[in-house]
Design goal:
Length: 226
């Protein structure tokens, strides 16, 4: 059964009057967590789309880059998106339920944040309302300010990303300590490690960009330090 078929099964509960927040509470164990992850990206992405006032074709395309959606499954994905967009529940409630679901798995919450950043930047413009939205979601997810800034530095091209921010280190750290952080990030972002966290196979492709950014940051630091 495909991911999207399982999502359709989960949405069947809505016929009984349950909302998406109730579905989040039910999808707590593997393999259902991968379904919950996909629904979370769609639902929070829909709420974020309201933050900048509109949904562009670029944003839809960006979502497809993260999750491959077969033609037969498009209706299910669209249903999740439209439900989230019209649901009276605020994004804070969604984020709180998702945080509870992945408690003890901060890496998975960071994966989800990356998906949202990817969608936010799809139209080439990072709206101030999107920034406020993502900063609040990060706060609910217990993602530190420094880690949030590191994510933003990688995705928002206001300037060349600061390699220290990307790795989450400071210039006054010893090079060997920085190397230890870099190696840890490489291990944590290996596809096998991501799959073990219950991330859908489609979302693992986000790690490709992440690994490029991590390795480029380390190379820049090495060059700077000689």
């Amino acid at each position: 059964m495909s991911l999207w078929s399982r999502i359709s099964d989960a949405l069947a509960a809505l016929s009984a009057g349950e909302g998406l927040t109730a579905i989040f509470d039910k999808l707590r164990a593997p393999p259902e967590r991968s379904v919950a992850f996909a629904i979370a990206v769609i639902a929070l992405g829909a709420k974020m789309a309201k933050a900048d006032g509109h949904v562009t074709r670029d944003e839809v395309t960006a979502f497809r880059e993260v999750f491959h959606i077969a033609a037969k499954d498009e209706a299910g994905a669209a249903r999740v998106f439209n439900l989230a967009r019209t649901d009276v529940a605020g994004f804070e409630e969604y984020a709180t339920r998702i945080h509870a679901m992945f408690a003890g798995q901060p890496e998975t919450l960071t994966d989800l944040m990356e998906g949202l950043f990817h969608i936010a930047m799809a139209d080439g413009f990072y709206h101030p309302n999107e920034d406020a939205f993502l900063e609040e979601v990060a706060h609910i997810f217990s993602i530190s300010d420094s880690d949030f800034r590191a994510l933003r530095a990688r995705f928002v091209p206001d300037a060349a990303p600061d390699p220290y921010s990307v790795l989450g280190v400071t210039p006054d750290m010893d090079v060997d300590a920085m190397r230890t952080v870099w190696r840890k990030l490489v291990r944590e972002n290996h596809p096998d490690a991501m799959m073990a966290r219950g991330v859908p196979e489609e979302a693992v492709r986000l790690a490709e960009k992440r690994m490029i950014d991590i390795n480029r940051a380390w190379e820049d630091i090495q060059s700077e330090r000689g």
